[in-house]
Specification:
about 375 residues, alpha/beta, 11-stranded mixed β-sheet, two-stranded antiparallel sheet, 15 helices, about 35% helix
């Protein structure tokens, strides 16, 4: 990966006020033909147009097939603002980030909060060459539209957070979430430190609707599970350390991490339980008052195009499920196995959706109580 540069002083001042750290990545390649006519107002003569992209670090777009390839194609610069948390990104956008950050990666669980805060703008999807090739079930959900039905988010990657176990430690085949609650696995379980995933998982275990469960029953189930939990993980590195050290042997994890560990020779099993599994899809949104709307649209089109989507699905280490159906259809069986969609994708996926304020408060309060042990 190329050496990072610091972002502009104006945005740095804003982020320092917010007590945040802004890092970025950019390239040196140019394409005179692609750059012709793409310069927007505010760019000095001879200066490359710069696009600021907010995404998680090591999440596809900062790979060689992402940022550097896009820079080469359009003769521009891409600066990555690496997200540390969803609330932090919201705070940055509300306190000077609009007009400085151009494109953001957001999950539908939070997308409407950003829309209500007035930090996003609508997207004219008729200008996106790849839009009609994207999975219809992801691009048509209500959560990616404003009150007038205009699109505010374009899907670019999806996956699952499902059950894993270390087959070197656990010899029996596991097919149900109920294994988490089995006393013989006490002190061996790890869960993602994410309220939505935990509550939906517990709901599936007790036979409740994952989208609208009886929270008293869910709290009881998670309370019973607490004694079996060894640790909560919050990042890729957290999980890798806990698994490879032998600290944990069963729990939930992103499919991309399971693939990475398998590629490194780890005997990790990744399972879609009989009760169903938790799914997610991330979206590109354009930030209000961007000075680089045309380039932002090119970025979204590139990240949903066949070149990027195929590279994302077949690269080394972590790989991700493409939303471009043409790419998915042409993947080899081996590639589909790595993505956990062979011989077919799971049919019983419970996608995370936004919650109303009252439900959000109930769910987060319940999760905080469980983690605190009260």
């Amino acid at each position: 990966m190329k050496r990072k540069k610091t972002i502009s002083s104006l945005l740095m001042v804003m982020l320092l006020v917010c007590a945040m750290v802004f890092t970025s990545a950019c390239g040196n390649s140019s394409s005179e033909q692609a750059n012709s006519g793409s310069k927007e107002k505010g760019e000095a003569p001879g200066e490359k147009e710069k696009l600021v992209v907010a995404n998680w670090q090591s999440y596809a777009t900062d790979a060689e097939y992402g940022e550097p390839a896009f820079e080469e194609l359009y003769g521009c610069e891409v600066e990555h603002y690496f997200i540390s948390s969803i609330p932090e990104l919201m705070s940055v956008l509300e306190n000077g980030g609009t007009g400085n950050i151009d494109v953001v990666c957001i999950n539908p669980l939070y997308l409407q909060q950003y829309q209500n805060a007035g930090v996003l703008q609508t997207i004219d999807v008729s200008k996106l060459q790849n839009y009609e090739n994207l999975r219809e079930d992801f691009r048509t959900i209500d959560e990616v539209k404003d009150a007038d039905g205009n699109i505010i988010g374009v899907p670019w990657v999806w996956g699952t957070t499902s059950l894993f176990y270390n087959a070197d430690v656990i010899e029996e085949e596991i097919t149900s979430w109920s294994a988490f609650w089995d006393p013989k696995y006490a002190g061996m379980v790890t869960l993602e430190n994410e309220y939505d995933t935990a509550i939906r998982t517990a709901a599936m275990y007790i036979g409740e609707d994952p989208g609208n469960p009886d929270m008293e029953k869910v709290e009881g189930a998670l309370g019973d599970l607490k004694s079996n939990i060894k640790t909560f993980w919050t990042s890729h590195d957290d999980f890798i350390k806990a698994f490879t050290s032998g600290e944990v042997a069963i729990g939930n994890v992103w499919g991309s991490i399971a693939t990475e560990l398998q590629s490194e020779g780890m005997n990790i099993k990744y399972v879609y339980p009989e009760e169903g599994t938790v799914g997610w899809c991330d979206y590109w949104c354009i930030v209000k008052d961007t000075k680089h709307e045309d380039l932002a649209m090119k970025w979204i089109d590139y990240c949903t195009g066949e070149q990027f989507q195929n590279s994302m699905a077949t690269g080394e280490g972590q790989v991700y499920c493409p939303v471009n159906t043409t790419v998915t259809e042409n993947l080899t069986d081996e590639a589909k196995q790595s993505l956990w969609i062979y011989p077919e994708a799971p049919s019983n996926i419970h996608l995370a959706h936004p919650l109303d304020d009252e439900t959000l408060k109930t769910w987060t309060s319940a999760w905080d109580k469980i983690k605190a042990g009260s």
